[in-house]
Design goal:
195 residues, alpha/beta, Spore Coat Polysaccharide Biosynthesis Protein SpsA, Chain A, seven-stranded mixed beta sheet, two-stranded antiparallel ribbon, 5 helices
Length: 195
């Protein structure tokens, strides 16, 4: 188990592009969210689900917390998580990423030390903020942005010490970038992952 890190899943999105609650969409015969949950259960003793409808996800058996800033998107979910965790760091992902890499998540947690506030992979040169480790000390910066109604996660990075893992570094650890697949529409649902 990874010490001093809480595994967090955000399950508060409106799923407007999907047309229904994508967290519950069937993938390999199970709800999509169960795939991310399984990976985090292998890695973290402490886990947290951020949702405003905890009854919907009671089947996971995870503790949950609601957004304090309702309707403010994933940044509000990260804020809620960092305000609720007992550990110093949190790995945060969405409910729509079925192929999380245990080895990459471990590496992100290892790198989130010292003066680093966030460790974020950047496939294709673009940060993947819902596949990242955040330190609890990011909370004041995030709250300040939310109070200004600045909801884009990338905006907080300018005020924090961010360790980016660029694509070449990612591909040295991974066979490909399939781990970053996220599901926004029903047509994004993949077939079973092999190998």
């Amino acid at each position: 188990m990874v010490d001093d890190v809480t595994g967090v899943i955000l399950a508060g999105g409106a799923s407007s592009r999907f047309g229904s609650n994508k967290a519950l969409a069937s993938h390999d015969g199970r709800p999509l969210i169960s795939h991310a949950a399984d990976t985090l259960e292998h890695l973290f003793a402490q886990r947290l689900l951020v949702t405003n409808t905890p009854e919907t996800y009671a089947f996971l058996g995870w503790p949950s917390v609601a957004d304090r800033f309702r309707g403010a998107g994933p940044l509000a979910g990260i804020h809620a998580a960092l305000g609720a965790i007992a550990t110093e760091r949190a790995f945060v992902t969405g409910c729509d990423m079925p192929f999380l890499s245990e080895s990459l998540v471990r590496r992100l947690a290892e790198l989130a030390v010292g003066d680093c506030d966030v460790v974020v992979p950047c496939p294709g040169g673009r940060p993947e903020p819902l596949y990242a480790v955040y330190r609890r000390r990011c909370l004041p910066t995030i709250e300040a942005h939310l109070r200004r109604d600045e909801r884009k996660i990338g905006l907080i990075f300018a005020s924090l010490k961010v360790r980016r893992l660029e694509e070449d570094e990612l591909l040295a650890m991974l066979p490909d970038l399939g781990t970053f697949l996220n599901v926004n529409r029903p047509t994004d649902l993949p077939g079973p992952r092999r190998g």
